[in-house]
Amino acid sequence: RIETKPPYIHRVMFAHRLEVRKVSESIKYNHPLRKCVDTILKKCPTEYQERMGRNMDDYEDFDERQNSYPSEKSLVKLHKQVIYSVQRHRRTQVQWQILLEQAFYLEDVAKNETSATRQFVHTFHSQEPENKIIQYFYTPTVEWYWECLLRPWFYRVLAVVLATFSVIVVWSECTFFSTKPVLSLFAVFIQLAEKTYNYIYIEMACFLTIFFLSICVYSTVFRIRVFNYYYLASHHQTDAYSLLFSGMLFCRLTPPLCLNFLGLTHMDATISHKNTQPTAYTSIMGSMRVLSFIADGFYIYYPMLVVILCIATYFSLGTRCLNLLGFQQFMGDSEMTSDLIDEGKELIRREKRKRQRQEEGENRRREWKERYGNRDDSTRNRVVHTDQKESSFSETNTNRPLSKYTRSNGKTERDRIELLQDAEPLDFNAESINDDPLESDSGRYQPGGRYLSMSRSKIFDDV
């Protein structure tokens, strides 16, 4: 799809970015339209804003240079284009990620179908955190049985049920005008419930009929694309114009859908030709009997065109006609389709290699942190502890007289004191020799060898 190809969107964004940069460089800080340019820059992505800058270093007056400046009308047009391009770029990125997740999921299902362990193994882990309750019950074994065995059969059964409903709807659309005999199957079901006065059965039959008709009608609105401009995108990526357009279609389709349901079940007096109590819809919207040519002709025969629509959808006549007119369409028997398939495979391989490299880098960083993280923390704590001891030791020495030493309980501090003692000269002229040379005046014991105690008067004699 062209809409989901990032290179195409990048080219559009690059063209608009160049235009915004040109306008930002031409309109200086003191220009009256600089506020408009700043407003446009705020709508650009953050990485583009950092590249563009505001060009605030140039303080030349804009009137002194004879340059052609854009008008306010052109800036309004550029602002509109930037908003649309940014919104389209974000929407395309989200759609691209969704398509990648679907492709990886289908590859995982194809690989796990032949698994002997019967445990579903994902190629890439989900980036979103899963619920613990779901994770507890939805184990890899349960996931394998559901994804590889039960889910395909569930889809087959659902396809048979929906195909049966579709046949009933098509048959009833072509025969609901017949009242004698009653050929519409929905009308038959409702009339059987009326005879037995089974109100619950009537409610269930009406609910299922309207529910299936609503799915058929509204699912088309969700998928419709008007020139690839008006359409609904998932994950909250739909713009305001598409929401208004889709809301308008919903409002226009709901009344005809209700009228068609009344015709299928023969609750409309125009079809049943009975003087029954009018429904709430008929009492508000009125009856089709006012316009006889619509009630007797268009209202009866127009629904039969659904048969032609079903045949055209089954044989893909619309896609083939557009392909003949020159519009590229995805068809199974053309060279362009095979080229698109090969291009898609290459894109998936490239994104898969990119994700694998990212996961390998994250795993290496995680292993490095687990292996060396505790060691780094212990080394960091040891360094901090040593610095704290040294700072406390230096503060104590500065606060006390130089002739006194502090007692250290650590082996490192004791070795440092012994080295200092070895560097001191022996004083043989002293009056007495103490048994404990490192003993301070206060009488505290200090470990060390038998050296003379230093005094304040002779400590700097040899310097």
Query: Which H/E pattern describes the elements?
Result: HHHHHHHHHHHHHHHH
Major beta sheet summary = none
Tertiary shape: extended
Q: What is the overall number of helices? A: 16
Class derived from helix and strand content: mainly alpha
Low-pLDDT segments, ≥5 res: 1-5, 395-409, 422-457
Fraction of residues in helix: 55-70%
Q: Round the Cα radius of gyration to an integer and report it.
A: 42 Å
Mean pLDDT: 75
Question: What do you see in this structure?
Answer:
The chain is an all-alpha fold and 463 residues long. It is built from 16 helices and no strands. It is extended. The N terminus is likely disordered. It is found in: Membrane.
Question: What are the salient characteristics of this protein?
Answer:
463 residues, 64% helix, transmembrane, transmembrane helix, LMBR1-like_membr_prot, GPCR-associated_LMBR1, membrane
Task: Describe the structure concisely for a colleague.
One of its GO terms (cellular component) is membrane. This protein is mainly alpha-helical.
Give the SSE layout:
Blueprint: H1 6-26, H2 34-43, H3 46-52, H4 72-112, H5 132-137, H6 140-175, H7 185-196, H8 199-223, H9 240-264, H10 269-272, H11 280-285, H12 292-301, H13 306-314, H14 317-324, H15 335-399, H16 411-423
Helix pairs in contact: 1-4, 2-4, 7-8, 8-9
